[in-house]
Design a protein that fits this description.
The protein is an alpha/beta fold. It is 44% helix and 20% strand.
Length: 123
C-alpha cells in the first residue's frame, strides 16, 4: 500500500509519517510528501499512491481541487482528508468528490492510525 502525504505544514507531514512508521502499519510505504496540491498531483502521477492524506487549505492548489484532479487518474487513490477546517460544507464537498474519510486536526496518533486503516481497507 503506497501512501502520499499532502499538507502545507511540515510539522503535520512529519507527524503523519512518524505515526505510520512508528506504529509499523503493515504494508504501508510512504511514496511522497507534498506541500501543496500541485506537488501532490505531480508526485501522484509518478508514484500512483493507493492512499493519500489530504489537507484542504493549502497554497497554489487547495485540497478540493487536488481531490478533483486525483479522482481523474486511472485507479484513483483512496483519500483521507486531514484538516483543521471547521467548514462542514467544504468537508462534505471533499467527500462527495471521492474522499473516503475525514479526521480533524488536531488528531491523536490512534485517531490517525484508525482512520488510515479504515481508508486502506474500505470494504
Amino acid at each position: 500500500m503506497k501512501l502520499l502525504i499532502v499538507d502545507d505544514s511540515n510539522l503535520i507531514r512529519t507527524r503523519i509519517a512518524s505515526v505510520v512508521e512508528a506504529t509499523q502499519m503493515k504494508g504501508i510505504s510512504i511514496v511522497g510528501l507534498a506541500r501543496n496540491g500541485r506537488e501532490a498531483v505531480r508526485i501522484a502521477r509518478v508514484s500512483r499512491p493507493d492512499v493519500v492524506t489530504m489537507d484542504l487549505t493549502m497554497p497554489e492548489m487547495d485540497g478540493v481541487e487536488t481531490i478533483r484532479e486525483l479522482m481523474r487518474m486511472p485507479d484513483p487513490p483512496n483519500i483521507l482528508v486531514v484538516s483543521a477546517l471547521n467548514d462542514k460544507s467544504t468537508a462534505i464537498t471533499a467527500l462527495r468528490m471521492g474522499a473516503r474519510g475525514f479526521i480533524n486536526k488536531p488528531f491523536t496518533d490512534d485517531e490517525l492510525r484508525l482512520a488510515l486503516l479504515d481508508v486502506c481497507n474500505p470494504n
